[in-house]
Design brief:
By secondary structure, the protein is of the alpha/beta class. It is built from 10 helices and 16 strands. The strands form 4 sheets. The chain has a 6-stranded mixed sheet with strand order 1-2-6-3-7-14, sandwiched between helices. Strands 4-5-16-15 form a 4-stranded antiparallel sheet, with helices on one face. The protein is elongated, with a radius of gyration of 23 Å. It starts with 7 loop residues before the first helix and ends with a helix. The mean pLDDT is about 95.
């Protein structure tokens, strides 16, 4: 039996237990089964647990608050328990170990990191001395679909905290995330006029043709130099090849690096109008994750983590990434550090994996952050 409280093999067994409970966002009963296991892990620890009942087809959220330090702003740890992988995916990607890699659905994004945050908290509880700040761990059930039922809870807890630590996976060999693009989603609805494509095409007004114009307009908004991307990811329209299409529809994803870019692009997309008489274009949507811009407070928090990592014997670098996380909701008003989870690769893929060698240093870094933030 290892005397090392951060023994990688022991932590991997805990991660395996979480991974082998499949938890697709759209299967709340599965997510709740995992919430049961996570909550059970806090039994006997100096915490109060709050379980927020799921709604709108999502699972429950779990809040674990340390019994100390809750009378002043403390440390909020954000994790999610849902995955993108559908039920049964574990048959395609069973938990297995191959060299330094451990595979399984959601093991990298982000059950590995969520477990390390929990494990580091257990070690804090085992210490004789309590750290200066209280620790609140929030596990949500809907991050992979944009956190629609947990956003208000995340923002409320974030505003009460002095620091926010997010256990999303590390990037590019262990880099910490100190900035993320904002994410906006839009639905485009187009209504045209149907007609027989062979005998009376002049009577029709094609919704699909108008959608082509809209797609060109959206495409012209891409600006990779500025870090702006607009993607039309879903299109539907028409009924039969010999009918001028009466309706067409598209789903659009916008990524922006700053609030100023969001203020410019969101109204522009919402304001798209039809180029064709007799055809209507309606665009709905909003910015659902604000940009996570690297603030002075966030930069100082990264420097603290970088110093702690150096003390532990490894070098920490930071990175800006295009993907959104729950850290986007807290970064505008609270010092936030993201990407504190495991290192690995293959998020959302059939080869998703964490690197076992990252478990001990990443868990120790979380532990030292809990221990020293003040």
């Amino acid at each position: 039996m290892s005397s090392n409280p951060f023994d990688a093999a022991a932590m991997l067994q805990g991660i395996r237990r979480w991974v082998e409970i499949e938890s697709p966002t759209e299967r709340p009963e599965q997510v709740n089964q995992l919430v049961d296991i996570v909550a059970e892990g806090y039994r006997g620890l100096p915490v109060t647990l709050e379980r927020v009942t799921g709604c709108n087809g999502c699972g429950d959220h779990l809040v674990a608050r340390s019994s100390w330090g809750q009378d002043s702003p403390g440390v909020l740890v954000l994790s999610h328990l849902d995955t993108v992988h559908p039920m049964g995916f574990i048959e395609r990607l069973p938990f297995r170990v191959d060299g330094d890699s451990a595979f399984g659905p959601g093991i990298y994004d982000m059950k590995g990191g969520a477990f390390l945050a929990y494990h580091a908290f257990r070690q804090i509880c085992a210490d004789d001395m309590r750290p200066p700040l209280g620790i609140t761990q929030l596990y949500v059930s809907d991050e992979e679909i944009g956190s629609p039922t947990s956003r208000a809870l995340i923002e409320a807890e974030g505003r009460k905290a002095k620091y926010v630590l997010v256990t999303e996976p590390a990037r590019d060999g262990g880099k910490i995330v100190t900035g993320r693009k904002g994410v906006a989603r839009f639905d485009v609805f187009i209504k045209g006029v149907p007609a027989h494509a062979g005998t009376r095409p002049e009577d029709g007004r094609s919704a699909i043709r108008e959608l082509g114009h809209v797609i060109q307009t959206l495409g012209s908004m891409n600006d990779l130099e500025r870090g702006i991307s607009v993607n039309v990811g879903v299109v539907r329209g028409g009924t039969k090849p010999n009918v001028i299409a009466e309706e067409a529809y598209a789903e659009v994803d916008l990524r922006v690096p700053s609030i100023a870019d969001a203020d410019e692009l969101v109204p522009k997309i919402l304001g798209i109008t039809s180029r064709t008489e007799g055809v209507s274009v309606k665009v709905t949507g909003e910015l659902n994750r604000p940009p996570y811009e690297k603030s002075n407070a966030g930069a100082a928090l990264f420097e603290r983590a970088k110093g702690l990592a150096a003390d532990l014997g490894f070098e920490l670098h930071d990175v800006f990434t295009g993907g959104g996380s729950d850290g986007n909701f807290t970064a505008p008003h609270t010092a936030t550090l993201d990407g504190l989870g495991v290192d690995g690769k293959g998020a959302h893929t059939h080869y998703e994996q964490l690197y076992i060698s990252s478990l001990e240093p990443r868990a120790r870094l979380l532990y030292r952050l809990y221990q020293t933030l003040r």
